[in-house]
Write a structure and sequence with these properties.
The complex is a heterodimer.
Chain A: H1 2-35, H2 41-49, H3 56-67, H4 72-80, H5 89-115, H6 118-125, H7 130-141, H8 143-158, H9 162-167, H10 178-187, H11 191-217
Helix pairs in contact in A: 1-5, 1-8, 5-8, 6-7, 8-11, 10-11
Chain B: E1 4-13, E2 16-25, E3 29-33, H1 40-48, E4 55-59, E5 62-65, E6 78-81, H2 93-103, H3 112-118, H4 134-146, E7 152-156, H5 164-180, E8 185-189, H6 192-198, E9 201-206, E10 209-215, H7 216-220, E11 234-244, E12 249-254, E13 257-262, E14 271-277, E15 281-284, E16 295-307, E17 311-317, E18 325-330, H8 331-337, E19 344-349, E20 353-357
Classes of the chains: A mainly alpha, B alpha+beta.
Organism (chain A): Chelativorans composti
Pfam families (chain A): BPD_transp_1
Subcellular location (chain A): Cell inner membrane; Cell membrane
Chain lengths: ~220, ~350
Amino acid sequence: MGELWSPILLTLELASITTAVLLLVGTPIAWWLAWSEQRWKEIVATIVALPLVLPPTVLGFYLLIALGPNGLGGWFGWLTGARTFAFTFEGLVFGSVIYSLPFVVQPIRNAFEAMGRRPLEVAATLRASPWDRFFSVALPLALPGFLTGAVLGFAHTVGEFGVVLMIGGNIPGETKVLSTAIYDFVETLRWREAHILSALMLVFSFAVILLVSILGRRSPRGDAS
Amino acid sequence: MSDRIKIALDGRLGNFNLNVDLALPMRGISALFGPSGCGKTSILRSVAGLNRIPGTIQVGGETWQNHTVFLPTHRRPIGYVFQEASLFPHLSVRQNLLYGAKRTRSPGVIRFDDVAELLGLGRLIDRSPANLSGGERQRVAIGRALLSQPSLLLMDEPLSALDRQAKDEILPYFEALHTGLKIPILFVTHDIAEVERLADHLVLLREGKAVASGPLNEVLSAPDSPLFARSDFAAVLGGRVERIDPDGIATVQSDNMRLLVLGDRLQPGEPVRVRIAASDVSIARSRAADSSILNALPVRIIRIDDIGAHETSLLLDPGNGTGLFRARISRRSAMRLALREGEDVIAQIKSVSIVANR
């Protein structure tokens, strides 16, 4: 059973950490994209959206180079003693954050834009500082967007395969996640295990899509005036 | 100048330049009046720090903006009422009301209970903003602004999103605000009826420039006022109810005129504001003994302006140059009476209405 549980737990750990990082990184990006009047912001939006269309192997290839001895791995290697970030759990988190970024940034940006500037202006005229405005007004009003982004980011990370294959290396307990485990089981003709994991993923995916559409239906409580 | 609100702005705004230099009183209601797109909302937003147009803004001796200073909105002791109430939908009415109150550093001279009483919020306190009518929402928004203890209240067409009924419901609260609180109010509107009813000081704006600025009737009835050509032009005069006769006719003393009005709900001694519509004033050479018109006053014509091809507006002085009002008559009537500037005539006022109890 350890062979089944290890990839499941690793996947959940990866997806949880990735989602937390995504919310921390994605929120300021979404905020900037929603409010900035810079003309080149759509360029940034496009870069963020690239993983939507880029083949995961291409993304994985560049990440492999970025994480390797000539990239981040080389710069920060002295901290960890490793020569490379590729084929590590940390590298996998980094890759997943890039890969799932658009799934988190887009819903949060949309929620900010749907909310509009007005509630923030009102809060400012009522003495709320910028941070105060964010936590007391923007966060609660954009909450459905945050939830949708978190669920999508989590689910997308759980389902990633190509990028993991390129930068993960499929090391049990370190980088062997669900999707690569299923691939392995099929390669080695262990259909029972492949069936179990695949069925779990099917149920999980169904639940995620249902959850997202329920969150989307419950639109932000709009001011009718 | 520390008892003034100084707004001097000069900058580009859409298709035209906003260029104003205003000094407004630190008391009463000052109305910024003009057609949409004239820059009135931009001025208000600049005072709030929501827009940044180069210039100087000083309120009661404190500088909020000049070439080196720009106080961010949340540091300015203002209350801002937007066109739509913009209540926070995730908070209850009470939480909305207390949002600014909790954050302000100004000493709390405006008390929660007083505001709730003044604006009739008692029954609404524990409801959700979604369950309020448009008028109720706007009252909550005003209360919310007041409870942040502002030293200047800014209102951007607070009535224009409301229907007639909601407007009638909320206007008395504005008057209560005016008499009950000592906070100066800057009020943006494109509705002359709101100006007549509420404003003490009037600023006329056109394409980013201030055409006139001064006490209400001085601006309305200024010889060069661009307003007289409006078909609904009226003079608005302050006065006091002198007495009420048993037949319901009240005598109102205004400047040096004594006007008779239907005084249904008036009290002797009460200050009122009377409106004389130019189209309700006709001119006679002599006092008609057999007329139904109650108000016939000797006046001097101080100016004659043509309106279009067929009508004429006369600026009339009932005495010593104050309390001016206008008459709008046909060109044919003006010709037949051979009216000239400087002549003394009788103004017959068909109706004088009370626009506000002050």
